[in-house]
Amino acid sequence: MTPYAFEYTRASSVDEALALLDGHDNAKLLAGGHSLIPAMKLRLSNPSMLIDVSGISELAQITASETAVHVGALATHRAVETSEIVQAKCGVLAEAAGGIGDPQVRNKGTIGGSLAHADPAADYPALVLALNAAIKVAGPSGTHLIPAHDFFLNLFKTALQDGEIITEVIFPALSARSGAAYAKFSNPASKYAVVGVAAWVEVDEHGMCTGARVGVTGAASHAFRASNVAFDLSGKHLTAETIAAAVAGMADAHEMLNDLSASSEYRAHLCSVMAQRALTEAAARAMG
Ligand SMILES: Cc1cc2nc3c(=O)[nH]c(=O)nc-3n(C[C@H](O)[C@H](O)[C@H](O)COP(=O)(O)OP(=O)(O)OC[C@H]3O[C@@H](n4cnc5c(N)ncnc54)[C@H](O)[C@@H]3O)c2cc1C
């Protein structure tokens, strides 16, 4: 398939991209192109103008402050995977980025494009939910932060408004007694998540769980937090038994996707299995 005809232009700054978006009704940003171009070829997305932001180098930076890791929206999956900052301060994010797609996808696809696209099977959504990230957005009325738990609204639908651009994703630094892990049951061809679960836990000096967050992707129309699991673990020692009890029946098959990759019942089962693996590893890291 070939896309409908469209115009193409490049933006060299965020302000220029915002002005171009403002001036065109049916324009779309182009970052790595690894979701948008296939959708255009299938004529599922038909923008009349592409605004190529891939050359805005300030959006590709990865930096750290005392309290957070700041990943620019244009950081490619490969840049996230290989960043020494991410590896040192948020290792689970680097691990997850290394498991996305194939080398071509990782070298072109970006974290901002992935979050904006909100594919229900994408990996980063589970991570931003578990790690309590904030998505920084620039728009016609200035910049603002969208907490990850308010970002994913439905299938391919986010809280981004028309004319807005993701500029960076802010991951809070992991505290000394916290740990995080990601477990994915992937489609063997694309590596998209049939179900992927990211877990973050924090323990006190006695190994008691003082906080937990579980982000699930691939399972439903959009990524979500399994708050029931986090609630069940709170105040308990993180053992094989407490984790198994917390994840048992965590997902309702009626709310799961049902497609060629997996039935809704199988996806509900996978949620528990992947959550158990991610929580077990996260707990080991927190107590490690
Ligand atoms: C074969 C294949 C396998 C894949 N496997 C996986 C996988 O295992 N896991 C996974 O998570 N993903 C996978 N992907 C998707 C890949 O990660 C994409 O790169 C990603 O989803 C989109 O990022 P992009 O930079 O390519 O965005 P683009 O395709 O350029 O854009 C996607 C959408 O986001 C918008 N957009 C882009 N940047 C911004 C921004 N800064 N602010 C606001 N809107 C923006 C665009 O307008 C468009 O609507 C796969 C893709 C392919 C083709």
What topology emerges from the helices and strands here?
Blueprint: E1 7-10, H1 14-23, E2 27-30, H2 36-41, E3 49-52, E4 62-64, E5 68-72, H3 77-82, H4 84-89, H5 91-98, H6 103-108, H7 111-117, H8 124-130, E6 134-139, E7 142-147, E8 152-154, E9 157-158, E10 165-172, E11 178-186, E12 193-203, E13 209-217, E14 224-225, H9 227-233, H10 240-247, H11 264-287
The structure holds flavin-adenine dinucleotide.
List its salient traits.
288 residues; five-stranded antiparallel sheet; four-stranded antiparallel sheet; Uridine Diphospho-n-acetylenolpyruvylglucosamine Reductase, domain 3; Uridine Diphospho-n-acetylenolpyruvylglucosamine Reductase, domain 2; alpha+beta; Enolase-like, domain 1; 26% strand
